[in-house]
């Protein structure tokens, strides 16, 4: 078991639930429907990857070297993807124009895709018993 993965997964899960409650009760009346939908997309992707962190943390089927790469890719990917979506969705509430960081979202998504691909390749290379 990898404590680092489990702690990160639990932290992402916890903050996803908090942000979901915040969106449903705090943001619903002050941002547009489209912005709220985008915010919820960020939450959904964060929660999906919280589960992935937990699964990887409990797995012994991933090489240690690969685990380090996947951890970095997932952590950075979630922070960039979901984090930028949160900022962009609430852009109207701040004096800073977050549209200048809009390219961070696809970069984060790309890092998540790469992490899944690295994980897949790790599983393909496993020796069958």
Automatic annotation (TrEMBL):
TM helices/strands, residue ranges: 47-63, 70-89, 101-124
InterPro entries assigned: DUF423
Subcellular location: Membrane
Highest taxon, organism lineage: Bacteria
Membrane topology: Multi-pass membrane protein
Coiled-coil region: none
Pfam family, one: DUF423
GO cellular component: plasma membrane
Keywords: Membrane, Transmembrane, Transmembrane helix
Assigned protein family: Belongs to the UPF0382 family.
UniProt cross-references to PANTHER family, sorted A to Z: TRANSMEMBRANE PROTEIN 256 (PTHR43461:SF1)
Protein name, UniProt field: DUF423 domain-containing protein
Source species: Christiangramia salexigens
């Amino acid at each position: 078991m990898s404590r680092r993965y489990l702690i990160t997964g639990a932290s992402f899960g916890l903050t996803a639930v908090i942000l979901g409650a915040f969106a449903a009760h705090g943001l619903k009346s002050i941002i547009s429907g489209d912005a709220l939908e985008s915010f919820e997309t960020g939450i959904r992707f964060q929660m999906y990857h919280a589960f992935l962190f937990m699964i990887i943390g409990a797995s012994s089927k991933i090489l240690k070297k690969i685990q380090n790469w996947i951890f970095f890719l997932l952590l950075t990917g979630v922070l960039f993807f979901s984090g930028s979506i949160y900022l962009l969705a609430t852009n109207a509430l701040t004096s800073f124009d977050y549209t200048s960081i809009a390219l961070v979202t696809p970069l984060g998504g790309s890092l998540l895709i790469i992490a899944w691909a690295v994980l897949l390749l790790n599983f393909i290379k496993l020796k069958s018993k």
